[in-house]
């Protein structure tokens, strides 16, 4: 199981891998845990089966899922930036049908244009709700991109190791108990996957900002309308890519 403990808010699996867990962080309060851990920081946690073969299979599976997520994020961002200014008015050729993500984006953009004047007089309830959901996503993203990453690896429910990675790249790892060479390798792979997930999170955020800017320019939308529309579109593309697996 791949979880992120202490994360504010809740949503589906992050990047298709990590399950948010708002429960208080317990493992890092155990003896020998890092004393300099920020009480508000989140902990990335990987719990693996006791079988080394099954544990490696789980790591490989999650690594493939993350790579697919990165690819989907990139493609979604390219689509947003590549839309023409007349995309909403263009008639589709015979047999050409919107994907569910495209249809939702088209709907959101059209509604956004209809409600554009409301930005000057305060946000309507549905626009405000969309903006609020987007802001919660941003707050959660900033938690994931905190300067220090904390990661623990468990075998079943037994703590194998925990690591802290500083912004400057310095890594400190503590092994509460002796570990085999294979277990050491599994922890290093878990750490590498968490770091790669942070890069993917940053990519996600970058594509939202770039895509939102493109929507704002091409369809004359304000940020409170364009950014949530871009975020929703990329989320929908990710959901489609997962369902296709």
The percentage of residues in β strands lies in 5-15%
Described by strand count, sense and barrel closure, the largest sheet is: 6 strands, mixed
Radius of gyration over alpha carbons? 21 Å
**How many β-strands, per DSSP?**
6
Average pLDDT confidence is: 84
* DSSP summary: helix tally: 5
Q: Summarize the amount of helix as a percent range.
A: 40-55%
Taken from the alpha-carbon principal axes, the silhouette is elongated
What topology, given as strand order, has the largest sheet?
A: 2-1-3-4-5-6
Question: How many structural domains can be distinguished in the coordinates?
Answer: 1
Tell me the structural class: alpha/beta
Low-pLDDT stretches: none
Order of helices and strands: EEEHHHEEEHH
Distance between the termini: 19 Å
